[in-house]
Amino acid sequence: MMAPITAASACAFHTVKLPSQNYTTKEGIKRGTNLGQGHGLGVKRAFCGGLQIKANARNYNDDAKISRVASISSSRQNFTIRSYEVDANGAASVETLMNYFQSSMIDHGKTLGIHNNNLNGSTNEMIKRNLVWVYSEMQLFTYRYPKWDDIVEVETWLSSEGKNALRLNWSVRDFKTNQVLNRASSVCVLMNKLTRKLFKMPEEVRREFESHIVNFRMIIEGEDKKIPKVDDTTADYICTGLTSIPQSILLNYELSAMSLKFKRECKIDSKLQSLAEVCSDDNNSKNNVEYNHMLRSEDGVEILRGRTQWRPKPTNNFDNFNHVPEASIKDF
């Protein structure tokens, strides 16, 4: 459908290049048909001074229900995990998953015929008004990361999110076992690319999407947990760059969940600071680690607020990598 750009980086999602992948069904790895075309989705609408998409979609967190409901209006695409897309443990990186989400959403829009065959996902009515999509929220939850040479199936669909936004939904499954590996969801709003200000969704743009909206959305574990603001008095770690997690954590832990809220746009030449606060949990029996984050400009303006959860990495099966000692919060 679209390749939204983040409010924190207005050009980040215009430059990613991905290897060519194909839409598939379970019967084979080949280009398949659009699973959304020709189906009546039964989307409820309300009329009040103009056409509106139903304000709130139904919530689902049961994988069987998600599969049944989304299958009539979603697209599925297969990806093979390449050697250059994995970390030292042979697992796909978070960046790899994000690239898959972007690629599948763009192709989803192409098969639905709702954008003008461009990489930024703009529809004809959006182009007339100089509008682009930006992320306002992003959630990710991982059960486990796919490994090198695995084939994963990414299912993609759209749901409603109030009158002026759309929610993008993704479910990642192991192609061979059908096991759910990852879930992700994101809220997108419109921005005028000339004024750089958010823009209410015009009726004409809404009509381009309404027949493809599904009346339910993905539930991400922990998404309703409020993200507190991190400042100089509460941060355990402050860096005048983009790194806000100690190297020892990155080497020995993997990201298990993430929730982001974008506050403002930053430019390509912006100078940033990242702050991270260690969250203590007296009931934590699995040695998991949780952080609150804030990304801000050097003059103190908040750009992004986030929360990440980390779990110990599984045993490293790659003999050609050296063992790294266990990390702990004390490494700060």
From TrEMBL:
Localization per record: Plastid, Chloroplast
Boundaries of every Acyl-ACP thioesterase-like C-terminal domain copy: 237-311
UniProt keyword annotations, A-Z: Chloroplast, Fatty acid biosynthesis, Fatty acid metabolism, Hydrolase, Lipid biosynthesis, Lipid metabolism, Plastid, Transit peptide
Record has Glycoprotein as a keyword: no
A single Gene Ontology CC term: chloroplast
EC number: 3.1.2.-
Span of domain Acyl-ACP thioesterase N-terminal hotdog: 76-208
Gene Ontology molecular function, alphabetical: acyl carrier activity; fatty acyl-[ACP] hydrolase activity
Enzyme class label: hydrolase
InterPro entries on file: Acyl-ACP_TE_C, Acyl-ACP_thioesterase_NHD, FATA/B, HotDog_dom_sf
Principal location class: plastid
Pfam families the record matches: Acyl-ACP_TE, Acyl-ACP_TE_C
Function: Plays an essential role in chain termination during de novo fatty acid synthesis.
Family statement drawn from the similarity comment of this UniProt entry: Belongs to the acyl-ACP thioesterase family.
Protein name stated in the entry: Acyl-[acyl-carrier-protein] hydrolase
